[in-house]
Design a protein that fits this description.
Largest sheet of chain B: 5 strands, antiparallel
Number of helices of chain A: 15
Shape of chain B: globular
Low-confidence stretches of chain A: none
Helix content of chain B: 10-25%
Strand content of chain A: 5-15%
Oligomer: heterodimer
Number of strands of chain B: 12
Distance between the termini of chain A: 97 Å
Mean pLDDT of chain B: 96
Helix content of chain A: 25-40%
Low-confidence stretches of chain B: none
Shape of chain A: globular
Strand content of chain B: 15-25%
Mean pLDDT of chain A: 97
Radius of gyration of chain A: 28 Å
Chain lengths: ~450, ~375
């Protein structure tokens, strides 16, 4: 017999998609039976009370969680998000229901040994509910009480060699795509760069010293599977600057229908036989491809590396060998001034450990500028908007490049600087008047 | 329940303290075939929806079976994932950016038994535990936020609308019939922890009533200047006022016609709640993408200004999404993303084909960039 009636939530148990309600109910039952004899450190019926408060939200059409509350672990300003229920008498099991963000490994690969260790810890000291994973990438532990926070942190660091992730006005947990681990498109080792920078900037990650949140995301190629260009203050997108490698035999096999286009991604419908002209050459955004004597030709100098042809014929076309990263800055979701896409600031940079150029020539000068000039709760992209791309170029000490803009300005309102104009701005009005009467 | 110490000594918090160690290193967790072939992959193929093969220069192959899942996941469920991974995958498993679960095999003969096993696992309520799919020109898992399960600012739930929407779109999770892949995302308020602003279809929670003001407590719970500064439209001003009992307090007033319902004030000041049963609901946005493939990344556009919250299954929201998906599936060219299709046929045609009303709410009036979204050409379609 369930502790709370949940007639509305029960309707989310039907249908084919995995039901979170069914999962919550099975978890509630496992805790109630407690066959593993766990000495639960937070209320045993926490999941039942979560179902209860969620049902109440379904009835009211409003959340029943209060505003944050400052909780955390000693010495850190991030990683824990305080959460309290606004109906604690009715649902005492979730009266305190704090979140911990646990920094996920690059690429989200796990051994089951490690996952089971995390489960053991979380069953003992928390609700046993998680997000695998949160939006930014962390393993999210949902729901524990204040006295457990230090205990969890102690076990994580002492037993599992594992740290918390970021929250608040600090570096948020960096995240990456699967990269070279299992993808032929990846132009650099996203896992290593993500891990290296996460380790390098632990202080910035745990102790809020920034005007607002700051995100790094690492995409191995311009397909952007982790959406770095839309979601991160600094977006690292893998690219190359030499030639796409062509396997002519494989191109012929695609044309001959021996290999399905796009890795078989279109297998659910009969689109007719593969037509390289229509499906690849005519869709190339720069029109830099053509067929010559039955062979596919590419004018690589004109290629903008959109990935379409490579996506369509992954067995025939391969990324170039002179690889590196394109860096863009300033993306964010709409709050406050509307959404912003990231802007290109470094067209190309080599990516080699220990990544000194990325750290010293890009990240750190940008942080210095933002921490000096950024207003409270101003994202990097908003500061860029307020002070201009010119200012960021100046901060980085790089040369302006037409690659950084969509198009040049269509107004002539240039803010000339005094030292750019011969003779400067100081002039003598009396001298002027000698030749120009009043 | 007796308190069990981890070894932490609250009287000496710095004793043996370990900090700033970061995450576990990724290569501890690579399956051997991944470790061996990293950076040396040649190509990949979808053998069927949800099943991939990656082939390395060495000739090694890794087979991946991708399953959907609710990102709100219990340890009971994670232990079941572990059990499967131990049975078939030597104890390795991974998760994708879109909250899918991936089981990797280096032995092709294990693919069918694993698929059969996964397909047979169901929750007591009847839903699949591990539906296979989420690849190619179909619909992958919906990335989303916390909603009513855990957040203080949502204008809708997250897990519920996602479950209802994926039930509706389930066949497309397991099929490759669409012109290109179609990404659906949900954010339960416009803070967009889920960053849905570049999705093919975005489900966004939105408030429609200005904050209520808890004058009696506001000055005790909030920094008035921070609440004022939080407002992007300068709708909030400080006021001194008298409570019914004659007590004078510092508080704020909101110019209601200026409020854009962003909730940023509530983030800074808990005495200004916005949540409301009738006021809150869902905005549908469409046509965004993050990939640089063929066309540049683009933002999603608002195509339905408001749909009421209809718990537990949000039928109007799911039906609206279904209409958009079907119109796109019927009309777009191969490889064309939803936003590219809308731009090719023109947004006037998009509303016609999707059978959506165009209302004044959909015309941008927020600051300077709005002007550039109005049509400034005689080129349009009847």
């Amino acid at each position: 017999m369930a502790k709370h009636e949940t007639p509305m939530l029960d309707q989310l148990e039907s249908g084919p998609w995995p039901s979170f309600v069914s999962d919550l109910k099975q978890q509630a039952e496992v805790r109630a039976k407690n066959e593993a004899n766990i000495e639960f450190q937070i209320p045993q019926d926490v999941v039942e009370d979560l179902l209860g408060v969620l049902e109440l939200s379904y009835k009211h059409g409003r959340t029943h969680w209060k505003h944050g509350g400052i909780v955390g672990v000693f010495g850190y300003g991030g990683g824990v998000i305080g959460r309290y229920c606004d109906q604690p008498e009715q649902f005492p099991g979730v009266a305190h229901f704090h979140t911990l963000r646990v920094n996920q490994p690059s690429g989200k690969f796990y051994t089951t040994k490690y996952l089971r260790e995390l489960c053991d810890l979380w069953d003992l000291r928390g609700s046993g509910l998680t997000n695998m994973h949160g939006s930014t990438g962390d393993i999210v532990f949902l729901g524990t009480t204040t006295p457990q926070l230090e205990e969890i942190f102690y076990e994580l660091t002492h037993k599992y060699n594992q740290d918390l992730g970021g929250s608040g006005s600090n570096l948020r947990t960096p995240s990456d795509c699967i990269g070279q681990a299992r993808c032929e498109f990846a132009c650099y080792d996203t896992h290593d760069l993500c891990y290296n920078l996460t380790e390098e900037y632990q202080d910035e990650l745990h102790r809020p010293a920034f005007p607002y949140k700051f995100k790094f995301k690492f995409d191995g190629c311009p397909n952007c599977c982790v959406a770095s260009i839309a979601r991160s203050d600094l977006s690292f997108i893998g690219t190359w600057r030499d030639n796409i490698k062509i396997d002519a035999e494989a191109v012929a096999a695609y044309i001959g229908g021996e290999i399905p286009p796009n890795g078989g991604a279109h297998s659910g419908r009969d689109w007719g036989p593969f037509d390289i002209q229509k499906e690849v050459i005519d869709l190339c955004p720069t029109h830099c491809m053509w067929m010559e004597d039955g062979k596919l030709m590419i004018n690589n100098k004109e290629c903008n590396r959109c990935m379409h042809c490579i996506n369509v014929m992954p067995r025939a076309l391969h990324i170039g060998d002179d690889r590196g990263v394109t860096i863009l800055a300033g993306a964010k979701a709409p709050i406050l001034d509307g959404a912003q896409m990231a802007t290109l600031i470094i067209p190309f940079m080599k990516v080699e450990p220990p990544y000194t150029d990325i750290k010293e020539k890009v990240i750190e000068p940008i942080w210095d500028w933002w921490m000096e000039e950024g207003k409270n709760r101003e994202r990097l992209g908003e500061l860029m908007k307020r002070q201009g791309l010119q200012k960021l170029i100046e901060v980085l000490g790089v040369n302006p490049d037409p690659r950084m803009v969509q198009e040049p300005r269509s107004n002539p309102y240039i803010f000339w600087k005094e030292d750019e104009v011969p003779g400067g701005f100081k002039r003598d009005i009396n001298e002027f008047r000698k030749y120009h009467q009043r | 329940m007796a308190f069990i110490s981890s070894g932490y000594n609250p009287d000496k918090p710095m004793e043996d303290r370990i900090t700033d160690i970061g995450p576990r290193k990724f290569d501890e967790f690579y399956p051997p075939v991944i470790a061996k072939n990293k950076g040396k992959w040649l190509y990949h193929e979808y053998l069927r929806p949800g099943v991939l093969v990656h082939v390395a220069q060495s000739g090694d192959e890794v087979y991946t079976v991708r399953c959907g899942g609710a990102r709100l996941m219990s340890t009971t469920h994670i232990r079941e994932i572990c059990e499967i991974a131990e049975k078939y995958c030597d104890g390795y498993v991974r998760f994708t950016t879109r909250n899918n679960i991936e089981f990797m095999l280096s032995d092709k003969s294990k693919v069918d038994p694993l698929v059969k096993d996964l397909e047979g696992r169901k929750f007591d309520g009847g839903s699949f535990k591990f539906p296979i799919g989420g690849t190619g020109a179909g619909i992958s898992n919906i990335v989303h936020t916390q909603g009513w399960v855990h957040c203080h600012t949502p204008a809708t739930d997250a897990s519920g609308p996602v479950k209802a929407t994926l039930d509706e779109l389930f066949t497309d999770f397991q099929n490759h019939r669409l012109p290109a892949h179609l990404r659906v995302s949900l954010a339960c308020c416009l803070n967009m922890c889920g960053a849905v602003h570049c999705s093919d279809i975005a489900i966004l929670g939105y408030h429609r009533k200005p904050p209520m003001i808890d004058h009696e407590y506001l000055d005790k719970m909030c920094e008035v200047p921070l609440a004022i500064a939080a407002c992007p439209t300068a709708a909030i001003r400080p006021v001194k006022m008298e409570l019914p009992d004659g007590k004078k307090v510092n508080s704020v007033a909101v110019k209601e016609e200026r409020c854009m319902f962003c909730g940023n004030c509530y983030t800074m000041c808990p005495s200004m709640p916005l949540a409301d049963t009738e006021g809150d609901g869902i905005v549908i946005m469409a046509g965004g993408k993050v990939s640089n493939r063929i066309s540049a990344p683009k933002f999603s556009k608002v195509v339905v200004a408001f749909i009421p919250n209809e718990p537990p299954r949000w039928p109007t929201t799911t039906a609206t999404i279904r209409k958009i998906v079907e119109a796109y599936a019927a009309d777009a060219h191969k490889y064309e993303r939803l936003g590219e299709w809308a731009e090719r046929i023109g947004w006037e045609r998009f509303f016609e084909k999707c059978e959506l009303d165009f209302t004044h709410h959909l015309i941008d009036d927020f600051r300077d960039p709005a002007y550039y979204t109005w049509r400034q050409t005689s080129q349009f379609k009847f």
